Amino acid sequence: MTTYSILITHPPSDVTQTIAAQQFSQQLCMQGHSLNNVFFYGEGIHHANALSRVPSDEHAVYQHWCEVQRTTNCELLVCITAAVKRGVVSAEEAEDNMYNLRPPFAQAGLGEFFSALHECQKVVQF
């Protein structure tokens, strides 16, 4: 059994990459591996925007990541610096109680992500 970490740097508009990352994440656990965390960095932080809405005939990126978290029990970590820079903020940074970073996504710094990598044998970037 291998422990994985996944790094997401592509925007959610790249649906092919998004679906591949989500399917890969779930397949790991179905094959007996474990997924420690998914770290969203750069343009990848937009996957964590709880206020994003898509038409019913399009891939619901946010909801699918929530499902990945439920089925794999992994952490969904969002780079705090990249997120705030791009307007994805938690309740702590929000003004007027308007925030779009909500559980199961959580803020993390790059240092926290690098520390978590010590618990993994493999990192896969999408």
UniProtKB/TrEMBL annotation:
Keyword Transmembrane helix (UniProt): no
Entry's Gene Ontology BP terms: tRNA wobble position uridine thiolation
Pfam families (UniProt xref): DsrE (PF02635)
Broad class of the protein's primary localization: cytoplasm
Transmembrane regions: none
Location in or out of the cell: Cytoplasm
Recorded GO MF terms: sulfur carrier activity; sulfurtransferase activity
Coiled coil: none
Family: Belongs to the DsrE/TusD family.
NCBIfam families in the cross-refs: PRK00207.1, sulf_tusD_dsrE
The protein, known as: Sulfurtransferase complex subunit TusD
Recorded name of the encoding gene: tusD
